[in-house]
Amino acid sequence: MKQFPSKESIISADRRIQPYIHRTPVLTSDTFNRMFGAFLFFKCENFQKVGAFKSRGAVNAVFSMDEEVVSAGVATHSSGNHAQALARAARLRTIPAYIVMPRNAPQVKIDAVRNYGGNITFCEPTLKAREETLKQVIEKTGATEVHPYDNYRIIEGQATCALELIEDAGAPDLLLCPVGGGGLLGGTALSANYFSRKTEVIACEPEGADDAYRSFKAGRLMPSINPKTIADGLLTSLGKRNFPIIMKYVKDIVTVSDRSIVEAMRLIYERMKIVIEPSSAVPLAALLENKVNVKGKTVGIILSGGNVDLKNLPF
Amino acid sequence: MKQFPSKESIISADRRIQPYIHRTPVLTSDTFNRMFGAFLFFKCENFQKVGAFKSRGAVNAVFSMDEEVVSAGVATHSSGNHAQALARAARLRTIPAYIVMPRNAPQVKIDAVRNYGGNITFCEPTLKAREETLKQVIEKTGATEVHPYDNYRIIEGQATCALELIEDAGAPDLLLCPVGGGGLLGGTALSANYFSRKTEVIACEPEGADDAYRSFKAGRLMPSINPKTIADGLLTSLGKRNFPIIMKYVKDIVTVSDRSIVEAMRLIYERMKIVIEPSSAVPLAALLENKVNVKGKTVGIILSGGNVDLKNLPF
Questions:
Q1: ipTM of the assembly?
Q2: Which segments of chain A are extended strands (E)?
Q3: Is A46 on the interface with B (CB under 8 A)?
Q4: What pLDDT is recorded for position A1?
């Protein structure tokens, strides 16, 4: 089995992507510090390019490929933030991006990918159709698949988020991170291990999509079946490259209810005056549910993104 | 007539209030810069203490008073951000704050003032009742009235916002600012005059509450009668201390429709991922309506606050 991404590969990713992404701010809130008796540092990836941390991995993947390989383009199936992030990264390197999207994807997401110059191929809205269509696109174009999370270059890119947080706010006692496919969590766990050994990484997951929690407790991958949560960025199941990193370097995984996620989301809008997507609220929901002991500790919290339907806020 | 606040009085206010307020960040947006062909710098008072620039003036007023006068407390009639800001400033100086509020004020605003330790006296929801009740409260307590905008200490405090913007983002060609009573606008115009002579200040006002526009064009104070706008922070009419400052140092006043305000508000949530109140969106609405020529210019925009009913966003 291939080695985990190294410390050097994350430092390289950090250097590689810097010209193309925002170094997002770290915000604090006196209200939340008082509320939880802790020192919370929020890493604001909602302010990132394309509105989510996904820009980091996508840029790293596209810009670390050799010229002769990458010139045929990159491809993925996605209707979410990864599709936009990959289309944007490809345009920055002036190569084509082929995006397979389900026919029923929201128009706003289709438009966003088109705005970044992505070539969209529509398919039936099933995982099977998406994978088969992607295979056909790749055969026809010679493009390279860039998986949204089960890919070491992606994991290295996402790792730069925790690296920046550690550099800008100091090494925290705890680092809280939402988990879906495990790209962000895997990268966060590696960065904590390499750059801040005292930091314990705790993953936070919706109850309705708790495959990471169950897999972590069982010690083997147990994919989600019909996951359901308001945190639509976390519906995916853990990737096979992500899982062993998480087993090794994540201290614990806790789950939270959708009700707490909505409450945490509302609190962040109301008190911090920032726009986040439900997935970003999952770590604060874990504090509301007393699932993590943060008393007196310094706590980094990754707000993963801010792409939300403003006409349908859940509170 | 008393002189306008001096350069030195604004520098003193800046030094006086610094321990008690946030130095709020200045954000930029590539999307908006491309959209308008300009370089926009957003001064984020939505991140300010109490969620609005009002904290600046209130702290300056309370902390610049002599001990023997201030110990009897401060008083105002307000159901908005000034009431909370004054209650907070008074608590910081451990003196009482007496707030007269209309009986029908929203519970959330009543709770907020109480949370800052304010003593509330309720009255009938008319301006006459508010003024008479305030007079009674002051007679009984010996407290000093702190008007929300028609007060030089308040104007000096609000002036520190533009001063910080100029220090942190450089002297802009234009400074755009919403106008209600003229506390923020008066302070902004003075700071531009003292600290950045090349900067032209342009006030932006809702069509439905256009007393500043009409007064500016007529050269005499013309109060609003039954103003109506979604920008509820801008319903008040210009103060008599504010008007001459504005006549002297503001370059122009433009008006915008509520429809453009809502559109600008949505754009700021969607693109900048921050929560603002409608009043904050008025300057960007002026750009959407092509009311200000910003092409190729550096433009400071003051986002005045972020206190909004999240359950009733207008888009």
A1: 0.94
A2: 26-27, 39-44, 74-77, 97-102, 119-123, 144-145, 174-178, 200-206, 252-256, 298-303
A3: yes
A4: 52
